[in-house]
Design goal:
mainly alpha; 2 domains; 15 helices; 2 strands; globular
Length: 437
């Protein structure tokens, strides 16, 4: 019994409108409009801006610990009021628009980026009946909604009439389009195993067959999705669209005040959204233990109290898993340097895409051994599938890396270094002289 649970009573007030049974088919009646309005009001003006504000506080604190600093500690206890002070500063700052900019497009660009991030959250199942909309094709909707973001970024760079902004926007579009391919391919094994595009059905499937990450093709798909998602939200080491050492600040160079704040809000909300997506697809949503139906198993009495207690447990563990993903992104930012742009693109097309395609075939082997024809997974079938697909996954990783390594070895000496006017741009004179000779 999973997120398809239907309550047996009538809810009271806003709580009842939020938690009671949802149908995949939307009926446009008064209660539906009220429920949508409440989700928009609570999410747009309350929950999600608050999440973003304290994600920024958490990142500043985490980065400070990594760098042997203190971090924000002046405004409020432990600096907890610093995000509120920063938000007030952004709201009250002067909004400057370049004279030659396309004013309407310049305004529309951050709005598109923010709307894209908010639309993604509409199909995330946080707990029982705590998905705003349960779409039968929720995963397709999520991918389509997230694809609006590159359009907003490109419009920001183009409308600014600034060469640095345009260069950053073109980088962003090339990067986001490239990494969308392995990101989408990484979800295909989950669709194959579940037989549905609904995120709620994907959650229910993991109650019976365990978390999808506990299989070799599932773990590889999890890693590919995690790497591609970091690139999709422009986080280090994939933050080339806003590389301040090369292009000032990229596509949002000409933005100030709350217009810049909208880009800021969209980026951190996208980080939260992709963390939620990875949690739902691979870590069983809010379930605390794999291969166990707790807490959904004790909710069969259909009482309101049981539903609320179960949802509290699910939401708590869901947010803990999301927090783990967010912390990993903060950790990566504090650890890894920025990739060079050509290597960033090569990594997507030469490593992640081939691995994703091969992993789909391996996921088919797992489906035949473990899932097809089995009412429930047994230890014997799970071990058999783990051994066979584990060997195939290791061979696939070795093959992709070996092929690309041979391609690099066959390249002429110094071909990997950029040149200007015939002179190699190589750090260190001795290395440059050796290559010239």
């Amino acid at each position: 019994m999973g997120l398809t649970w239907s309550g047996g009573g009538t809810g009271a007030g806003a709580l009842g409108l939020l938690i009671w049974a949802q149908s995949p088919y939307v009926v446009l009646d008064t209660s539906t409009y009220i429920r949508w309005f409440l989700w928009l009001l609570v999410g747009f003006f309350g929950v999600f801006p608050g999440i973003v504000a304290y994600m920024v506080w958490l990142e500043r604190k985490a980065a400070a610990r990594f760098q042997d600093r203190i971090g924000p500690n002046r405004v409020g206890p432990l600096g907890l009021l610093q995000p509120i002070a920063d938000a007030l500063k952004l709201i009250t700052k002067e909004d400057i628009v370049p004279r030659s900019a396309d004013h309407w497009v310049h305004l529309l660009a951050p709005v598109l980026a923010m709307v894209s991030a908010f639309l993604v959250m509409a199909v995330i199942p946080f707990a029982i009946k705590l998905a705003p909309v349960d779409l039968p094709s929720g995963l397709v909707y999520l991918i389509a909604a997230s694809s609006i973001s590159p359009l907003g970024i490109f419009l920001a760079g183009w409308s600014s009439r600034n060469k640095y902004s345009l260069l950053g926007a073109m980088r962003a579009v090339a990067q986001l389009v490239s990494y969308e391919v392995p990101q989408v391919l990484a979800t295909i094994p989950i669709i194959l195993w579940t037989g549905s595009l609904s995120l709620v059905k994907i959650f229910d499937h993991q109650l019976d067959y365990g978390w999808n990450v506990f299989s070799p093709p599932g773990f590889l798909a999890f890693l590919i999705l995690l790497i591609a998602s970091v690139a999709e939200v422009n986080r280090t080491p994939f933050d080339l669209p806003e590389a301040e050492s090369e292009i000032v600040a990229g596509y949002h160079t000409e933005y100030s005040g709350m217009r810049f704040g909208l880009f800021f809000l969209a980026e951190y909300l996208s980080v939260f959204a992709v963390s939620c997506l990875a949690t739902v697809l691979f870590l069983g949503g809010g379930t605390p233990i794999p291969f166990v139906t707790f807490p959904t198993g004790f909710m069969s009495d259909n009482s309101t109290l049981t539903l609320i207690l179960g949802d509290l447990i699910l939401v708590t563990f869901f947010l803990l898993k999301v927090l783990f993903f967010i912390f990993v992104m903060f950790w990566v930012r504090a650890t890894l340097p920025r990739l060079r742009v050509d290597r960033l693109m090569n990594f997507a097309w030469k490593y992640l895409v081939p691995l994703s395609i091969i992993n789909i075939l391996i996921a088919g082997v797992w489906f035949e051994i473990v899932i097809r024809g089995h009412g429930e997974v047994t230890l014997a079938t799970w071990l058999k599938g783990f051994v066979i697909t584990g060997v195939l996954t290791a061979l696939a990783i070795w093959l992709v890396f070996a092929v690309n390594r041979k391609v690099v070895e066959r390249a002429p000496l110094g071909a990997d270094w950029p040149s200007v006017g015939g002179s190699l741009l190589v750090p260190g004179g001795s290395r440059a002289a050796q290559l010239r000779s």
